[in-house]
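hi! just following up on the protien thing from before. the input was this:
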Amino acid sequence: MVATYAALAAGLVLAGLAITHIGPLTRWDDRVNTWFVARRTPFWNHVSWWGTFIANTLGVVVVAAVVVAVLAIRRRFLEAALVMGGLIVELAVFLTVNYAVGRPRPKVPHLGSTPSTYSFPSGHAAATLVLYGGLALIVTGRTRHLAARAVTWTLAVVFPLWVAFSRVSRGQHHLTDVIAGLALGAGVLLLLTPVTAGARRDADVDGVDDVDDDDTIDLDRADSAHGDSAHGDREWVDGAPIAARARSHDHMGARS
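and the predicted 3d structure came back as:
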């Protein structure tokens, strides 16, 4: 995780410094913010409020706590640790990059309260992608249920994009800020992917072993039943015990 933190932090710091010193790119960011402000309506303001709410610290912490608790109850301690570790790495990288780049917030009217941190990158977008993307990876690694996979991956795609739109619409971030936030979240998920893939392989092996054991038991029972049946066939011939038929044959020979 330390290597992941260092790589993500270094890459995003360089990207942030480059973005803030390229004139045409910063002017394009400003035009995008102005475009969104000019198209605000009560409906879209309501949509962006909810998009910000699900990514607030309280919302992320509550959902993460529920996910970790459920995983712990099911004794999935590795996955629980990964959810917590992923969010910790995301937060550490965010704070490092945020203060290293120090990009000001967009110069447009803001909706809602403005955090005390800088603009680059978007921590809301990054945390949302890590949380719901991590949940989707865990579900994919632990179940073949298509509906569960579809639901979690839908959340993993829709929620981060919703949050990214909301942060720009409310004037809290430049467009490149939320893109960088999504890149940060994706980088953390790359850390989680090999471990969740390993959990998937373990689950598959466990499932194969269970099936093999059941099949072995069934075969043993079948062999036992077949043996008993064959033994019964040897003991009985034409509806009478072999020993009884032998005695009858000897008695008839003595009479003759």
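DSSP finds nine helices and two strands in the chain.
The chain has one domain: 2-208.
cheers
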